[in-house]
Amino acid sequence: MNGSVREGIDLTRVFDAPRERVFEAWTTPERFAAWYGGHADVPLDRVSMDVRPGGEWSLVLVVPGAEMPFHGVYREVVEPDRLVFTLKDDSAAEEAEGEIVTATFTGRGRTTEMTFRQRGGNLTAEQYAAAEDGWEAFFDSLATVLAKA
Length: 149
Description:
Order of helices and strands: EHHEEEEEEH
Number of domains: 1
InterPro entries: ASHA1/2-like_C, START-like_dom_sf
Shape: globular
Organism: Streptomyces finlayi
Strand content: 35-45%
Protein name: SRPBCC domain-containing protein
CATH architecture: 2-Layer Sandwich
Family: Belongs to the AHA1 family.
């Protein structure tokens, strides 16, 4: 990446579903667990979501030989247009705010354009690149889940 400093992740995806369904996939434990983590397992009994400003969320990704907990706090919830929340894993310092994730959903007829942004400056360029690959895989799973619904 020619030595430039990487400040985060910016992705745009179009899903073949109305934005209400896409928003629901981000805010309902059963639906979120079905796509978050890509091919990793997210046991529903390890998902908690209090979807309101100040509400907390948490989940555990289970991969062979490891569990990876993630958690954060919702900062903004504007149904069905926008979600802003913090994102931390177990490696983040307790006092650290974590990364800030913003997902914006724009209806385009029967499809939804999702703009995804992750910022925080807590990761190295390599970690952001790996996280971006992870989100891409998660969003592939989200597209599959939305196509089945």
